[in-house]
Amino acid sequence: MSGADPAGKPFGQFKAMQREIWSGFAANEGLTTLAAAELVEFAKVGRGETVLDVACGTGVVAVTAALAGAIAKGLDITPALLERARENASIAGVDIEFSEGDAEELPYPDSSFDVVLSQFGHIFAPRPEVVTAEMLRVLKPGGRIAFTTWPAEHLPGQFFALIERNTPEPPAGAPVPASPIQWGDPNIVRTRLGAAVSEVRFERSTMIVPALSPRHVLVALEERLGPVQKLLASLDQKSPDRAAAVRAEIVRLASENTKSNGMRQSFLMSLATTRGLSHG
Questions:
Q1: CATH architecture of 12-157+166-207+269-274
Q2: Where are the domains of the chain?
Q3: Which of 2-6, 150-154, 178-182, 201-205 has the lowest mean pLDDT?
Q4: DSSP annotation string for 30-80
Q5: Which of 4, 118, 169, 198 is disulfide-compatible with 147, CB 3.0–4.6 A?
Q6: Of 184, 208, 203, 204, which is closest to residue 264 (Cα–Cα)?
């Protein structure tokens, strides 16, 4: 099978790793809660609309949509995050169906939802053309797709670029996943959505993350962000000097973007409406 790996499916091994490294993300959910409200408002989610939160994580977008009166569902590849998502829905007093699944193989019929959302989630699917097609497939004609992403020129994009530069290349012949940072480029977003949508609108916003010092940022990333944990743990064993250089770069980037005990993390929101063409 073209693009297959030892786990038996395209990018199966990569997805298994993603499931593992994001399992501790619940500790960060408070940082994305305000951005979830911005995304739901940007998408103009209305009462009674059916909404799917793709790569939902701890469900903050789905819960926000449900509290706005939508009929929400969420899907994620990581069971530990879905447990927290169900707990969040229960605490909020909303009924949401959360399912374990792959964003590249959405387990829903064509034209199932009025709105499809994703907050920093679908960008980690390894094949942009596949995840985009799936998100559009499950939208009703005239439905809306909206998502938040990290532009390469801003801090989170720089963090992920740093991770990518210091991650060993996959073995020869192994499939190579697309960079999540590409989703932060409006031109790439337009190209990926293509003729299936009638218009694309963009809006930028900024998340302020409490940060007592740049070194506090480093500690928080090592403790709470799976990709950073995995990278530094590997480099500590194989190349301590390189690990030290990565830590120094994280502190430098945090220093440049931190003011008054707040670290600025700018993000891009994209919104498009489907033309109602056949997804065939």
A1: 3-Layer(aba) Sandwich (3.40)
A2: 12-157+166-207+269-274
A3: 2-6
A4: HHHHHHHHHHHHHTT--TT-EEEEET-TT-HHHHHHHHTT-EEEEEES-HH
A5: 118
A6: 208
DSSP, collapsed to helix, strand or coil, labels residue 109 as coil
User: Model pTM greater than 0.85?
Assistant: yes
Look up residue 2 and give its two tokens: 């073209």
Quote the CA–CA distance of 37 and 6 in Å, as a whole number. 39
Rounded Cα distance between 130 and 89, Å, is 29
Query: H or E segment at 182?
Result: none
Question: 6-15, 88-97, 217-226: which range is least confident on average?
Answer: 6-15
* Tens of pLDDT, residues 132-176: 999 999 999 999 999 999 999 999 999 999 999 999 887 777 789
Q: What is the mean pLDDT of the chain?
A: 93
The values of phi and psi at residue 85, to 5°, are -60, -45
Structure tokens that stand for 273 in this block: 């409406």
